[in-house]
């Protein structure tokens, strides 16, 4: 009787991002290739990826247009990959021409209509089983890549596309087994249809080990730190698929695999040599460590925003009023001391361009409002802001109505005035869902690389902002002249590399201070650094007043507040009147009684005379 069982193994990585050099952050391609080869020993095997093989890469790979990364993946015998958002960092045209020409594997993008030189799916014959691989990418692409570089492409829901295509492939008999390569995170098993047998996720840099749920769902982290291996058995007669083994190797297990990889090592050595001399050049110096953060204000994000403002002003015909930077574009931190070109590159590896737009003040405020989102997983998308801008917000206010003041160069923002805003083409084209930046003029075409602005700032010795650009100010109760006010403050600390310890509130002639609490337990990240200040409102204040908040680290913001006038005093009765009333209180009754008694006595002693006087009156 003929054997109807097909047995095969699928290995998967995701979000490799060109991390082929062995470092403390990644095992490196040589160790990863060893682990893949070991998983394939004596088996029918296929090596796959869930996308982001290139883009946001370390210095050497990016400097060489990620060619070394593609060559290494070819040597690792990668056969099929989902399209990732970072594959399109340089635009769809660049990907469809240069990248796909170098890659010897198939790129799949079933939900992208249309990215040239990609396929919706491929079917591989694995030990007699027809195994279909469907690739999809996140449909949030317009917010992740410069929208202009992917114009004309439609992005459909990746899971819905996968389910629809999987059902058709199985119903048509084109596939026995369906494997989904989905460059999107946060997807649950129950979102896939029964037609999907295995799903490998990506994009979110998470590690998801198999749980036994159906379909088998895994995610192999990022930078080659994990390798997913799945051994499958398919009975072609009964159409039954069995998961024999599913494992997720970690970085230590991958590093422990040390079979020599001379071909891969040669590519790595050549690439490092080409990039090395340029990367080792010192471009400037950092006075202090500049931290990055994706969920709160950070020193480095603000530093780049200021560098962008100055860089656009120095490299264009305009003078930028405001500089902005999206936190997701800051990929590494800068340590104190000399900074090399390679280190600067690791901070901004995308090779994007800086530009400017002209916006009304009201649109600038709207853009600041867009930092807060109705998303419990990520309620804050912080913007880096140039040193000349500060603002306040009310943490208790609803999304869309949080901003309470904005100051530019020491003056309140004018809602009707036009401001020149400098930033990346990605951000000013509405990237990261900052749509308000698109309300003004079209971004100018400067051809000014974002990394150049950072390098120029480091070279010029641009100072690091130690103060906060924004502070949360909440008043639990209205302010009244002459009464004590409670002022709740937040966002007084960055969360790392702090210097502020004390905060002062000033209102009119009154001042009060408090110690800043660094406690972060149970707090939204951007609220780090809190204090409650008690202040007696001066009795002579009323109407709109400026409440000033300062810290010993240089934070200085103002917010307009309404002060109710002190209540009018009650009208008091003069004391001498009160004394008189008090005395009359016993004199009047006594006098009245005396009069009544006197009248009775007269009537008794002189009855005829009284009758003669009163009689006529009584008869009237």
TrEMBL record:
Swiss-Prot/TrEMBL keywords: Hydrolase, Membrane, Nucleotide-binding, Signal, Transmembrane, Transmembrane helix
Species, as recorded: Corynebacterium mucifaciens
The keyword Nucleotide-binding is assigned to this record: yes
GO CC terms of this entry: outer membrane-bounded periplasmic space
Single Gene Ontology BP annotation: nucleotide catabolic process
Domain Calcineurin-like phosphoesterase: 13-206
PANTHER family assigned to the protein according to its UniProt record, in alphabetical order: 5'-NUCLEOTIDASE, 5'-NUCLEOTIDASE-RELATED
The protein's name: Bifunctional metallophosphatase/5'-nucleotidase
One Gene Ontology term of the molecular function aspect: UDP-sugar diphosphatase activity
Keyword Transmembrane helix: yes
Family: Belongs to the 5'-nucleotidase family.
Family annotation (InterPro entries): 5'-Nucleotdase_C, 5'-Nucleotdase_C_sf, 5_nucleotidase/apyrase, Calcineurin-like_PHP, Metallo-depent_PP-like
5'-Nucleotidase C-terminal domain: residues covered: 292-438
Domain of life: Bacteria
Transmembrane segments: 584-606
């Amino acid at each position: 009787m003929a054997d109807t069982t097909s047995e095969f193994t699928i290995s998967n990585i995701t979000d490799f991002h060109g991390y082929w050099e062995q470092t403390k952050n990644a095992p490196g391609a040589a160790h990863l290739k060893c682990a893949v080869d070991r998983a394939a020993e004596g088996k029918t095997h296929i090596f796959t990826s869930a996308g982001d093989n290139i883009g946001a890469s370390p210095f050497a790979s990016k400097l060489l247009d990620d060619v070394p990364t593609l060559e290494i993946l070819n040597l690792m015998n990668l056969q099929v990959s989902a399209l990732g958002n970072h594959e399109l960092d340089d635009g769809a045209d660049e990907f469809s021409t240069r990248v796909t020409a170098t890659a010897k594997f198939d790129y799949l993008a079933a939900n992208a209509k249309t990215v040239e030189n990609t396929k919706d799916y491929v079917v591989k014959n694995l030990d007699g089983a027809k195994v279909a691989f469907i690739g999809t990418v996140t449909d949030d692409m317009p917010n992740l890549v410069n929208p202009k570089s992917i114009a004309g492409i439609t992005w459909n829901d990746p899971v819905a596309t996968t389910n629809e295509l999987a059902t058709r492939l199985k119903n048509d008999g084109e596939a026995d087994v369906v494997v989904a390569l989905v460059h999107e995170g946060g997807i649950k098993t129950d979102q896939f249809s029964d037609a999907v047998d295995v799903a490998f996720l990506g994009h979110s840099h998470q590690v998801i080990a198999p749980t036994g749920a159906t379909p088998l769902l895994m995610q192999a982290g990022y930078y080659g730190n994990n390798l997913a291996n799945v051994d499958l058995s398919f009975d072609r007669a009964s159409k039954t698929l069995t998961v024999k083994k599913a494992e997720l190797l970690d970085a230590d297990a991958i590093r422990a695999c040390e079979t020599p990889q001379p071909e891969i090592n040669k590519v790595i050595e050549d690439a490092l040599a080409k990039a090395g001399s340029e990367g080792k050049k010192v471009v400037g110096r950092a006075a202090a460590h500049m931290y990055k953060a994706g969920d709160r204000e950070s020193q480095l994000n603000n530093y780049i925003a200021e560098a962008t403002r100055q860089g656009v002003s120095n490299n264009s015909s305009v003078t930028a009023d405001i500089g902005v930077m999206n936190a997701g574009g800051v990929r590494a931190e800068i340590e104190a001391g000399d900074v090399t070109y390679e280190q600067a590159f690791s901070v901004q590896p995308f090779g994007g361009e800086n530009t400017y737009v002209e916006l009304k003040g009201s649109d600038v405020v709207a853009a600041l409002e867009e930092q807060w989102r109705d998303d419990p997983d990520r309620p804050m998308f912080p913007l880096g802001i140039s040193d000349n801008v500060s603002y306040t917000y009310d943490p208790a206010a609803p999304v869309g109505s949080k901003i309470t003041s904005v100051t530019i160069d020491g003056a309140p923002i004018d809602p009707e005035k036009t401001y020149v805003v400098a930033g990346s083409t990605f951000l000013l084209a509405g990237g990261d869902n900052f749509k308000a930046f698109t309300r003004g003029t079209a971004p100018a075409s400067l051809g000014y690389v974002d990394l150049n602005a950072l390098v120029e700032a480091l070279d010029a010795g641009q100072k690091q902002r130690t103060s906060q650009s924004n502070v949360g100010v909440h008043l639990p109760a209205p302010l009244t002249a002459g009464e004590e006010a409670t002022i709740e403050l937040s966002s007084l600390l960055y969360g790392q590399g702090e210097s502020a310890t004390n905060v002062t509130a000033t209102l009119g002639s009154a001042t009060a201070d408090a110690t800043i609490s660094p406690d972060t337990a149970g707090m939204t990240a951007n609220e780090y650094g809190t204090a409650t200040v008690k202040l007696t409102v001066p009795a002579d204040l009323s109407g709109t007043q400026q409440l000033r908040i300062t810290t010993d680290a240089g934070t200085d913001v103002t917010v307009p507040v309404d002060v109710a006038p002190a209540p009018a005093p009650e009208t008091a009765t003069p004391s001498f009147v009160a004394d008189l009333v008090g005395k009359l209180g016993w004199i009047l009754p006594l006098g009245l009684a005396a009069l009544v008694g006197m009248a009775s006595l007269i009537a008794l002693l002189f009855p005829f005379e009284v009758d003669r006087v009163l009689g006529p009156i009584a008869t009237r």
